Structure formats: structure tokens, C-alpha cells
Amino acid sequence: MTSYIDVPTKTLVTPTNKTFAYREIGVSSEVPVIGLIHLSGNLDNWDPTVIDGLAQEHHLILPDYQGVGGSGGKAASTIQGMAEEIREFIHALGFKQIDLFGFSMGGFVAQEVINQEPTLIRRALLTGTGPRGGQGIRNVTKISDKSLAKAIFTFTDVKTYLFFTRTSNGKHEAAKFLKRIKTRQTNRDRSIGWPAYRTQLKAINQWGSEHPIDFSKLEIPVLVANGDHDAMVPTKPNSYDLAKAFPNSKLVIYPDAGHAGVFQFSADFVKQANQFLK
To answer: Which of 14, 55, 143, 188 ranks highest by number of CB atoms within 10 Å?
Structure first.
């Protein structure tokens, strides 16, 4: 099977003339897995080890948000707006039901997709994320700005500080992850522009100030996974509260791991996610 680092970037124009860039990989399946990436992320920010592992058993479709990478339009000003755009993308592809894989802000967007159209979702993977109005989510802007300044000063990728612990193991895993996401050499996606990045930050800040979503009546199976020391979306209580919000959920917490725990423990996460999505 072709690796994620080699699959072509495709485009889709919806009936309302929204252009989405996306990549597609995996085996044939009636129910695809739609992947929703983190704050400022584009198609090259997915860990190819995780995507390739999931693609062995599933059909993955990974879009850019509007106003990001190869997609057209402007970045949505709310998490709910991003969810509406993703639903339009899914329906334009003609799918009646999907699985969702949301990481970080993508997990916020995934929750709003579930909230807006629960019958569209079969199963969901919510990783490195937390519930609407969760503790500390309003601080993402402050944490991101502080880490970005530090990254610029130290000539280091900001994900080193935001996604991993500062232990020797965490630093080692950060270096391995950054190497993996830079493996693709040709036809890389465009980096997010500064205005779209600030728009996403404001959307997260607003979402973190709103009331939690009531998922208590939904039977959708949900796998919640995170590292035990998430600096962006504090693991305690957010990962635990998110798992409790869904009646049919499983919680996985990885040791000495941060926001990107599912990428740090890619082999275990792929195994658990593949089994869960069956």
C-alpha cells in the first residue's frame, strides 16, 4: 500500500462552491474515517506512522479546513462553523455515515459534528482533546503564544513544547515525531497563514468559554485517548470528563506523554484504534 507521505492531494468543490483539499488512503470501506487535524495544522501535520497503520484496515479521508493549506475560503470564526463546513465536505463526498478521528482542535470540531448531526457518526476517536467549556481550554491562546515565542528564540519547532513532555524521553520522542512529519518531500501542503491561525485561536477561546455539550443520550462508541501530561488541554480533568460525557466510551491515557500521546505511542494507539473501529 502507498504510504501517506506519497499519496496525492485531491480537491473537492461542494455545491456551495467551497473548495477542500484532502488526502485519501486505505482499504475499501463503506464507512470511511474522516480525520480532523489540530490548531494551525495542515495535511502534512498528520503522523504518517499512525495514518499508515490505520490505513491497513480502514479508509481514511483527511481534509484541510477552509482557509487552510490547499483549501479555499476563509477560516471559520467558530468551532461550530468549522464543523458545519466539515459536514458539507462529507455530504459532498456522498457518505451517509462515517467514523471520526479528531486530534486536539480537531477533537473540538468532531464533537460539534456529533452534536450537529449524530446520525452521521458511527464511531469516534477523540484524542488530545477535551469537552466544550473544559478546564484550561481558554488558555490555549496564551500557552500557544508563549510557546511560539520560546520556539522562535530557540530555533525549535513549537510542537516540541506543545505536544510532548520536557523529560528526556519526551524530548527524544518529539525529535522522532518531527522527523516523521517532515518525511514527505514533494507536493507538501501550504502552511497556515497568520490571519487564519489567529482566527482559529479566537474560535478555541470562545469554545472554551461555552457550556458543555450534553452527549448523555447518545450511544455512539467513543475512544478518548491522551497523554498523562497534556499542557494544551489538561488531561485532568478534561480527558476524564470527555470520556464520562459519552455513555459508551473507553479512555486510554499514555504515561510520560503530552498532547500528542497518540503519536508518541503510535503502535499501541493504532492497534487500539483499529480494534475499536471494527
So the answer is: 55
Contact call for residues 89 and 115 (beta carbons, < 8 A): no
- Which SS3 state, helix, strand or coil, does residue 263 take? helix
Percent of the chain having pLDDT more than 90? Answer: 94
- In angstroms, the CA 37 to CA 68 distance is 11
Supply the DSSP symbol for 75.
-
CB of 277 closer than 8 Å to CB of 58: yes
Cell of 73: 475560503
Q: Which three cell numbers stand for residue 116?
A: 450537529
pLDDT tens sequence across 49-108: 999 999 999 999 999 999 999 999 999 999 999 999 999 999 999 999 999 999 999 999
Query: Position of cell 515525531?
Result: 177
* Residues in Cβ contact with 26 at an 8 Å cutoff, skipping those fewer than 6 apart: 1, 32, 33, 54, 55, 56, 57, 58, 59, 60
Burial 235-260 (b: 16+ CB within 10 A, else e): beebbbbbbebbeebeebbbebbbbb
- Of 68, 37, 45, 38, nearest to 181 by C-alpha is 45
CB atoms within 10 A of CB 210: 13
Single out the residue of 175, 22, 33 nearest to residue 99, CA to CA.
Answer: 33
